[in-house]
Amino acid sequence: MIGELSRRQFLRTAGAGVAGTTLGAMGFGGAEQAMAQAVRPFKLARTTETRNICPYCSVACGVILYSLGDRSKNTHASLLHVEGDPDHPTNRGTLCPKGAALLDFVHADTRLKYPMHRKPGSDKFERVTWDFALDRIARLMKDDRDKNFQTTSKDGVTVNRWTSVGFLAASATTNETGTLTYKVIRSLGVLPFDNQARV
Ligand code: SF4
User: Fold this and answer.
1) How much distance in Å is there from the Cα of 169 to the middle of ligand 1?
2) How far is the CA of 131 from the centre of ligand 1 (A)?
3) Has residue 183 got a pLDDT over 80?
4) What is the C-alpha to C-alpha distance for residues 62 and 127, in angstroms, rounded to an integer?
5) I need a surface site. Which of 58, 59, 122, 188 has the fewest CB within 10 A?
6) How remote is the CA of residue 180 from the centroid of ligand 1, in Å?
7) Are the beta carbons of 185 and 193 closer than 8 angstroms?
8) Which atom in ligand 1 lies closest to the alpha carbon of residue 57?
9) Are 188 and 145 in contact (CB under 8 A)?
């Protein structure tokens, strides 16, 4: 049974149990009711926990997001609290000051939440759909690759490379995502490929 509990579930359960036992041992009658009163207004008690990764640096610490409301509406307005994930092998619950301030980052007015497009000649960005953004990126990449892909070097050596486009990946991903990203980009012939983890 213990093996099925995550570290934070265990700590939460053990903490409540120890507190209740201690109150009882000290002679306070109705310890269970007292604990129930203490837990009821705890602001995180009714929240949903979502595990995620801090987006800032290559350490990629695990975080837990505590939110209220319907997440299917894809809004972060209900995010109440962020803390380090004690079950995450990288940071074991700790966060540096940047990660500890993620709540402000999520709620910042300047945070980009959807694709934006600036039309040629325009001086402003406009919100577009993901379908539009992905179609546009694919179109521009295809056109550029058709125009600039090199099969051989000037010495006649086979190179199959595309050097007029670069790709910057993110460190806050899984190994599987990283492997797939590498394969897709390299299979297109893209040579300029780096990762935010090195920044
Ligand atoms: S919490 Fe700090 S160290 Fe961890 S990933 Fe975020 S910025 Fe990097």
Assistant:
1) 17
2) 32
3) yes
4) 31
5) 122
6) 24
7) yes
8) 8
9) yes
Beta strand pairing call for 193-195 and 62-67: unpaired
Q: How many CB atoms lie within 10 A of CB 31?
A: 17
Choose among 13, 46, 19: nearest CA to 33: 19
How many angstroms separate the Cα of 104 from the Cα of each of 23, 94, 107, 123?
37, 18, 5, 29
Tokens at 19, concatenated: 């507190």
The pTM for the full model equals 0.64
pLDDT digits (tens, 9 = 90+) for 103-156: 999 899 999 989 999 999 999 999 999 999 999 999 999 999 999 999 999 999
Q: Dihedrals φ, ψ of 52, to 5°?
A: -155, -175
Residues with CB under 6 A from ligand 1: 54, 56-57, 59-61, 91, 95-96, 98-99
Q: Mind listing the pLDDT tens digit for each residue in 37-68?
A: 555 567 788 888 999 999 888 888 999 999 98
User: Ligand 1 centroid vs 56 CA: distance in angstroms?
Assistant: 6
β-sheet bridge partners, residue 81:
66
Residue with tokens 């694919």: 138
The count of residues in the chain is 199
Retrieve residue 178's tokens.
Answer: 């990283």
Structure tokens that stand for 186 in this block: 């390299």
